Amino acid sequence: MIDPKFETDSKLTPQAFSMNATPSPSSDSPSTATAHTGQVSPTSPTPAFSPLYQQIKVLILQSLQSGEWKPSSAIPSEVDLAARYKVSQGTVRKAIDELAAENLLVRRQGKGTFVATHAEHHIQYRFLKLFPDNGDPNSEGPAQRHIIDCKRSRASAEVARALALRSGDAVLQVRRILSFASIPTILEDIWLPGSPFKGLTAERLADYNGPMYGLFETEFGVRMVRAEEKIRAVLPDEEQCALLRASAQTPLLSVERIAYTYSDLPMEMRRGLYLTDKHYYRNELN
Amino acid sequence: MIDPKFETDSKLTPQAFSMNATPSPSSDSPSTATAHTGQVSPTSPTPAFSPLYQQIKVLILQSLQSGEWKPSSAIPSEVDLAARYKVSQGTVRKAIDELAAENLLVRRQGKGTFVATHAEHHIQYRFLKLFPDNGDPNSEGPAQRHIIDCKRSRASAEVARALALRSGDAVLQVRRILSFASIPTILEDIWLPGSPFKGLTAERLADYNGPMYGLFETEFGVRMVRAEEKIRAVLPDEEQCALLRASAQTPLLSVERIAYTYSDLPMEMRRGLYLTDKHYYRNELN
DNA sequence: GAGTGGTCTAGACCACTGA
DNA sequence: CAGTGGTCTAGACCACTCG
Prior knowledge:
The structure is a homodimer.
Chain A: H1 52-65, E1 74-75, H2 78-85, H3 89-101, E2 105-108, E3 112-115, E4 130-132, E5 144-154, H4 157-163, E6 170-180, E7 183-193, H5 202-207, H6 212-220, E8 226-234, H7 238-244, E9 252-260, E10 266-274, E11 279-285
Antiparallel strand pairs in A: 1-3, 2-3, 4-11, 5-6, 6-7, 7-10, 8-9, 9-10
The structure holds a DNA duplex.
């Protein structure tokens, strides 16, 4: 058990890489106990040094993923976590800093650190980047959601690739429309892997009040952590024209999204058609 | 001169807010010396407590803005900066951490901390989010640039608003085409404020080898720090059709960008028309 | 080997929240 | 008031780069 603590006086254990953050066999260690990060392989071309705080980050991530700490609830205080992992508070802090920067955790001074969620804040639709041309986002009020269809089907080659499934695997397919100020603006086709979302129906979707990702969190334990979008300009086909009440010559934004949970596991593919005559897709570059 | 250092033994200066990072009248202070952050006003409704590292961040920002440290060159080491500002290395570190997160500085272990630039790395076009459908970005090779026009004109109301000018102020207007694999793909109209870019000509643009923002840095001392884009789907007009060799029925991505230098000063407005039949605009959501 | 950024600790104190 | 996150310091040591 090489301990990565740097003694100020006694120069013990100067050999080997500083790693291994096993919380030691204390009684308060969680079910995800002996957490070696599997980097001891001495033949590895890159010794893959990993700082302590990164290992702590992984441990926290595991507790998030396992559901030990649920969305919108508080995680233990920094002091508690430091004791639990047998490291200094500063090290825990740095781990949490990174998780907060990735929007997995939210710090609130004086209150604690909380698991981020899609189901609150009235920032509603964290991943939706469409904004009205004039007036603030709130002037329109919340979007009206209308479920057109929700059916079980089989993954096409394209969907299978996106969701890391095999062609023909069970998937759920949802089609819906979002309207702003009663004007249909977004037509979305959504594909979900079948097994994690077993039991999802059009009814449950329609009944739930709030963003879809909120329902996924509370009802299916699936938390969307990040997403990638590919954006193109397209013309609609006949069916899409009808649903969006648009002409066949109306150019639309095609927004193809793949959303990931923890561990970069793809959990949703979505294709949205956005009407951009009164709205725009906003992006910030850094 | 209230000093925010927390003595471990002598409990001096427990009154007032901890602020004021004036480097003291030491000889090594830069030209932007006495840098109070103007927050001493006792009548202010919010006392606006600002931590030390934020004040250091502002000081570093000023040195960047003033040109004391130029793009792609190294800034002083953390130890030096700590001595200069009379704070601990950890405090300088936190300031630099944030600036690095904002892509203003780049840390390189063992070498130093460098001023970020648009003119290197062969990541070329940091702000361009268009990628080819198949194959990596490099398979196409670099974009071919073709300047169509570069003329002085007067700011329209729209351009004036975007660039924080008055209608009729002098502006520079550039039109160019970017081609990938010899296929015209992007048509861009660019508006620049006249005075910072005095002397910019089509010739200089054509001669310069590298991203336009690189030329702005080295020749005009204007560094683009961040940008916002508004994206829509549109159909081209006749002239645009001809330049992009596209039909009038080809939907295009309209990408309207406003780019900012330090202090959120808008320095460029740009409207791009992207052909998205072989490329897509990529965005990452967190 | 010297210099630079990166990690880790221990301890003190500050600002904010809520009972 | 106690508890939480936030700031700041000082010091030791590690990993990386380059001459």
